[in-house]
């Protein structure tokens, strides 16, 4: 790896594929102000890349995956399942400008978490009124009240079925624009692929 100047105070390197690798000692974006600042700038970059025009309106809805059984946990509690849920809702997205953002939260005293996929769709007449990209990041912010929800016991329970390092990447996944290829298939979310690869490495 080639060492870089720190980014937002975090140690930075180029990896073998030319991607920037950051050493971020946070479990959730809200853990520290510098983590939150970095996460917000990543979201702003994603919004800028989407080329949406402000002001705009966003209609928000959520698809929740409940851990009802082992099969559901194995099939949906991973990074790839985010795209799977998006594909299951494809009919609502065709011809529309839609962003998605995942969330993983433990209800109080729960053994397993819920996986929420937030959809934010641009609308002409209804929804939240968004004046600019900063307003959009604030309006789509997911607040994790409990940043210590991944206890050793909960991790041990989940590790019987899934890679918990993948799940712990989810709070850091930013807004992503749903894009379609020429055949009408949903493109991969590149940030998700990077996060999945990172979860295969030792922390």
What does this molecule look like?
- The chain has helices spanning 33-50, 70-76, 80-88, 133-139, 152-158, 164-167, 190-199; strands at 2-7, 10-14, 20-22, 56-65, 98-105, 114-123, 128-130, 176-177.
- With 203 residues, the protein is α+β, with helices and mostly antiparallel strands.
- The strands form 2 sheets. It has a 5-stranded antiparallel sheet, with helices on both faces. It has a 3-stranded antiparallel sheet with strand order 1-2-3, with no helix packed on it.
- A hairpin with a 5-residue loop joins β2 (10-14) and β3 (20-22).
- The chain is globular and about 45 Å long.
- The model has no long low-confidence stretch (mean pLDDT 90).
Principal-axes shape call: globular
User: What's the count of strands?
Assistant: 8
* Number of DSSP helical runs: 7
Give a short account of the largest sheet. 5 strands, antiparallel
- Which residue ranges are poorly predicted, with pLDDT under 50 across at least 5 consecutive positions? none
* Average residue-wise pLDDT: 90
What is the strand content? 15-25%
Helicity range of the residues? 25-40%
> In terms of structural class, how would the helical and strand content be classed?
alpha+beta
The first-to-last residue Cα distance is 16 Å
Order of helices and strands: EEEHEHHEEEHHHEH
- Biggest sheet: strands side by side, in what order? 7-4-6-5-8
Rg to the nearest angstrom? 17 Å
């Amino acid at each position: 790896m080639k060492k870089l100047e720190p980014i937002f105070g975090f140690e930075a390197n180029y990896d073998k594929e030319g991607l920037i690798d950051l050493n971020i000692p946070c479990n959730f974006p809200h853990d520290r102000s510098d983590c939150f600042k970095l996460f917000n700038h990543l979201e702003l970059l994603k919004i800028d890349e989407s080329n949406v025009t402000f002001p705009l309106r966003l209609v928000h809805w959520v698809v929740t995956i409940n851990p009802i059984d082992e099969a559901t946990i194995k099939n949906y509690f991973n990074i790839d399942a985010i795209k799977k849920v998006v594909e299951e809702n494809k009919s609502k997205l065709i011809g529309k400008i839609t962003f998605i953002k995942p969330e993983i939260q433990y209800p109080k005293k729960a053994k397993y978490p819920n996986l929420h996929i937030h959809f934010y769709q641009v609308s002409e007449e209804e929804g939240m009124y968004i004046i600019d990209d900063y307003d959009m990041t604030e309006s789509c912010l997911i607040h994790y009240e409990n940043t210590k929800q991944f206890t050793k016991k909960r991790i041990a329970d989940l590790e019987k079925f899934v890679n918990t390092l993948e799940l712990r990447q989810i709070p850091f996944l930013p807004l992503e624009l749903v894009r379609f290829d020429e055949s009408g298939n949903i493109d991969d979310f590149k940030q998700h692929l990077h996060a999945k690869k990172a979860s295969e490495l030792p922390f």
